[in-house]
Design a protein that fits this description.
The protein is an alpha+beta fold. The protein has helices spanning about 5-15, 60-70, 75-85, 150-170, 190-200, 215-220, 235-245, and strands at about 45-50, 90-100, 100-105, 120-125, 135-140, 210, 230-235, 245-250, 260-265, 265-270, 275-280, 300-305, 305-310, 315-320, 325-330, 340, 355, 365-370, 375-380, 385-390, 410-415, 420-425, 430, 445.
């Protein structure tokens, strides 16, 4: 096993297994050094790079931890410092006019420390150059796009600066801001600028923010204007988008059952045992387009008969009917769908769902939800009851120790036509038999005989 792979797996295990540990740690992951773009797509091209894992940060936990360490009147400034430290990951965009000619524009925390008077804009900074190590990149040929310095500096950047001032005005109401320059804040850091400038240069979409309830910060700091903000930039989201990280999956029954994978770049992959049937944005499918507005808020999906239960970051549940092609429940509390056993359903941490495990053995009407603390929720569809279990006090107790990976490396699972597939961290998968034993070995996603090519990265 390579040192890079071992480091990646160790990171996944430690962060997930010891969720109670500090979240204010170094999330950087940068194994690659490539001082040119992707030659095969031609020049000029624009690349967005990131140097972290393909995993969202737990900003709820991060802000709570910062709030425990600092008084309320220091919370925003401390959050800015953490954002500027680089420990939460970095993203930057590079324009390659040729393999050895490049330009970059970026936001960086001002050296002066005064975010209101000093511009965050940098050009060709060494930390945003091709010589900086990274984990993943997404490059687009821009031969037919206007990427001239004049257009970038006189049109694109002023537009981005204006948006950053608007956001800063909500975070710091009443503070005088420059009418011409941008503002670096935890809501408009390097990641935010990299995503904004990449989209303007390429005309393509890239994910760089995750939903975030700013009301948590608004209540802590007694600044109600913060509650109008709805997202937080995250280099981990950039990595998830680039790697097409699997969000959730499902499958139908039949002689050649259809299975579907939903990926972080807002696409779905529909396939059967023989071939890919379709790859497209979720907005383009009559079944899935109604998921689009809530897609970033979905933690995991559980498929049973004609219904998909979507577990949202809020802790609520939405229910999508495949036959009706519509939601029949939107963001309802879990106790409106299930009852608890033995405790109240309201005491079960639905906000902390890790993934859905495939059906096991003869439990055809029972499914298991893996929580971030490695406990299981057992969902019985016959009784509509949810039981919170220790994993060692469940049908999985006899098999998890025999798997060639840790159970907390599972990010999604598909059960269809008697076949089971687990999707794992570090872009891997494993096919299982009916006894939950791995068939052959754990493999890389890009090695899958049907959809592997879709998961190849640049």
């Amino acid at each position: 096993m390579s040192k890079v792979l071992f480091k990646y797996i160790l990171f996944s295990v430690l962060v997930l297994k010891f969720a109670h540990a500090s979240l204010l740690i170094n999330y950087r992951y940068q194994p690659r050094l490539e001082e040119r773009g992707v030659d095969s797509i031609g020049y000029p091209q624009v690349c967005i790079r990131t140097n972290t894992y393909d995993a969202k940060l737990d900003f709820d936990g991060i802000f709570k931890e910062i709030a425990q360490k600092h008084p309320a009147n220091e919370l925003l400034n401390e959050a800015n410092k953490y954002a500027a430290s680089g420990d939460f990951g970095h993203s930057w965009t590079i324009l390659f006019n040729s393999p050895d000619k490049w330009t970059s524009w970026s936001y960086r925390f001002p050296i002066s420390g005064d975010i209101f008077k000093s511009s965050p804009l940098q050009k060709n900074h060494w930390a945003d150059s091709p010589s900086r190590k990274f984990s993943y990149q997404y490059c687009v040929n821009v031969k037919n796009r206007d990427t001239s310095v004049t257009t970038v500096e006189n049109k694109y950047i002023p537009e981005i600066d204006a948006t950053s001032r608007d956001i800063a005005g909500k975070i710091y109401p009443g503070v005088p801001l420059s009418p011409t320059q941008g503002v670096y804040t935890m809501a408009t850091p390097c990641v935010w600028f990299a995503g904004q400038i990449f989209q303007k240069l390429t005309g393509k979409t890239v994910g760089f923010e995750q939903p975030f309830d700013w009301k948590l910060v608004a209540d802590e700091t007694n600044q109600p204007t913060l509650a109008v903000l709805k997202s937080m930039p995250d280099a981990g989201v950039v990595a998830e988008f680039i790697t097409r990280k699997i969000k959730f999956s499902g499958g139908l029954e039949g002689s050649n059952p259809e299975k579907v994978i939903f990926t972080a770049d807002r696409n779905y992959v529909l396939y059967n045992n023989n071939q890919i049937l379709n790859i497209a944005p979720i907005e383009n499918n009559s079944y899935f387009k109604t998921l689009a507005a809530d897609f970033e808020s979905i933690q995991a999906g559980m498929h049973h008969n004609e219904l998909i239960y979507l577990f949202m970051r809020s802790g609520n549940i939405s229910v999508f009917d495949l036959n009706k092609k519509q939601f029949i429940k939107k963001e309802v509390s879990p106790d409106s769908l299930f009852s608890g056993n033995p405790a109240s359903i309201k005491d079960i941490p639905f906000k902390d769902i890790r993934t859905i495990l495939p059906a096991y053995g003869n439990y055809t009407n029972t499914q298991w939800i893996l929580l971030r603390d490695m406990r299981l929720l057992e969902v019985n569809f016959d009784t509509k009851r949810v039981t919170l279990r220790d994993i060692n006090n469940s049908p999985f107790s006899g098999i998890v120790n025999n798997l060639p990976f840790n159970v907390n490396e599972i990010i999604a699972g598909t059960n269809s036509g008697g076949a089971r597939t687990l999707f794992l961290t570090n872009r891997r998968y494993a096919d299982l038999d009916s006894s939950f034993r791995v068939i052959d070995k754990v493999k890389k996603l890009e090695e899958h005989p049907i959809f592997g090519r879709y998961f190849a990265v640049q």
